[in-house]
Amino acid sequence: MSLTNKILLGMMLGTITGLLFNIFFVDDQHQIQTTSGQWFQVFVFDGLFDAIGKIFIASLKMLVVPLVFVSLVCGAAALGGQSRMGALAGKTLGLYLCCTTFAVALSITCAILIQPGANVDIATASNFTAPEIPSIKDTLIDIVPSNPLQSMVDANMLQIIIFSLLFGFAISRVGGDAASNMIVFFNNLNDVIIKMVMMLMQLAPYGVFCLLAKLFASLGFGVIADLAKYFFTVVLVLFLHGIGFYGALIKMLSGLSPLVFFKKMQKVMLFAFSTASSNATIPITLRTVEHDLGVDNKVASFSIPLGATVNMDGTAIMQGVATVFIAQAYNIDIGIAGYLMVILTATLASIGTAGVPGVGLITLTMVLQSVGLPVEGIALIIGVDRLLDMIRTGVNVAGDAVVAVIVAKSEKMLDIARYNNESLNAENQPV
Ligand code: ASP
User: What angle do CA 322, 325, 331 make, to 5 degrees?
Assistant: First the structure.
């Protein structure tokens, strides 16, 4: 069985196990009644499954910083001589911005048509306190690291990107033996870290099983029923954008087959879904985009880690629908200017926030405040956010890969034969 299928199986079995537990042992007040139920909860779901799930996520995160640093140094060192860096960065950022803007506009339009927030009881929205959001100025200043080791300790992606780019660029400028020795060293190091990624990917089916079993044991599907209209509106827009828009974009801007793209990206999206973190998925995204889709390391090593931080179309979609939902629930009309403001702030909100679970809900505060909507409204949607977080993270990482492929194709840095070669799949390589 291929790794993708094993992960899918792990997902399904985990979901079923968790749901069965929830149905048989958890009552309507979220209490576990029987002693055997409590025993299961403590030792199996909160004990064994929780531990394995956390070890799985930690093992992925373990590789993020070394991989991004080494891979980006290789890319920048190789690019340095060609002075294509500016064009590449410009195209990548431009596409990220356009895609996110489109995502928010689409989500607002759909939400206005579907009206998920009409007739919602707002009495429950009282216990949400707004967290502190850094200003745009602070976010900009924060991009330059004052201590690169600290950036790595904090896994601050933008700071690591800046440092690695400069480091790689400097290697290319040093020239001579020093440069070629460093390049060989970093390329070898990159191979070693990629090998570690491959080894850890084999653990994924078990990790995914445990993560989902634990999640659904406490969550159940009951939460969706109360917020069905909101939930399914977000899911609908995520599908429209993640499949329709991305598929069309790949076809139109690069002439490549969207089907091949989605087939090869399947396992990356499953990783994103189960971890709900674009950051933790970086090792798998990078590996797949380079190895299976044929994107040159010079493009992938820059656009993937950058995208994990600044490009969150799925998150922006949730924010667009959530804003309309809250406006409707509170009966406040924010008008066309308000919606334009939402597009602007939701796009900006995704920049500078790390791709970690649940961050979208925090930056939603900023979006609501920008149009004067009550922040407590977030309490209305918090119940289903974990599930939506998983789905939107899949869209977030797909968006990064779409842009990497398009930019690589336009810069003649895409191996088209590799892209089209269906048998090339990182998962099938021997460890
Ligand atoms: N979990 C998302 C990500 O990592 C961010 C969010 O929407 O909360 O991409």
Answer: 140
Question: How many structural domains comprise the chain?
Answer: 1
Q: Give the torsion sign (CA, 43, 46, 50, 51).
A: negative
Neighbours of 176 (CB within 10 A): 7
Nearest to 347 by CA among 144, 138, 136: 136
Q: State whether residue 414 is helix, strand or coil.
A: strand
Measured N-to-C along each axis, helices 297-310 and 278-287 cross at an angle, to the nearest 10 degrees, of: 160
Q: Give the residue, out of 361, 389, 397, with the most ligand 1 atoms within 8 A of its beta carbon, to mutate for a pocket test.
A: 389
| Contacts within 8 Å (CB) and 24+ apart, 369-374 | 369/130, 370/341, 370/342, 370/344, 370/345, 371/323, 371/327, 371/334, 371/338, 371/341, 371/342, 371/345, 372/332, 372/334, 373/323, 373/326, 373/327, 373/330, 373/332, 373/334, 374/125, 374/326, 374/330
> How many Å lie between the centroid of ligand 1 and the Cα of residue 377?
20
As for ligand 1, residues whose beta carbon falls within 6 Å of it are: 276-278, 312, 315, 355-360, 389, 392-393, 396
Contact 71, 306 (CB under 8 A): no
Radius of gyration of the chain (CA): 22
Q: Which of 315, 363, 366 to mutate to test the pocket of ligand 1 (most atoms within 8 A of CB)?
A: 315
Mean pLDDT of residues grouped by 10 in the chain (431 residues)?
87 92 80 81 88 92 91 85 78 94 96 88 60 70 91 89 91 89 93 89 91 84 78 97 97 96 94 93 95 94 91 95 93 89 86 79 88 88 90 97 97 94 60 40
CA 356 – ligand 1 centroid, Å: 5
The residue type at 377: G
CATH number at residue 255: 1.10.3860.10
What are 233's two structure tokens?
Answer: 């509106």
Phi-psi region of 372 (alpha: psi -120 to 50; beta: other; left: phi over 0): left
pTM of the model: 0.88
Q: What is the pLDDT of residue 358?
A: 85
**What tokens were used for 305?**
């880690």
Instruction: Domain of residue 210: give its range.
Output: 3-428
Both tokens of 92, joined, read 């990548």
In eight-state DSSP terms, residue 196 is H
**What pLDDT does residue 85 have?**
77
How is residue 26 annotated by DSSP?
A: B
**What pLDDT, on a 0 to 100 scale, did the predictor assign at position 369?**
87
* CA 39 / ligand 1 centre spacing (Å): 33
Instruction: Tell the residue nearest (CA) to atom 3 of ligand 1.
Output: 355
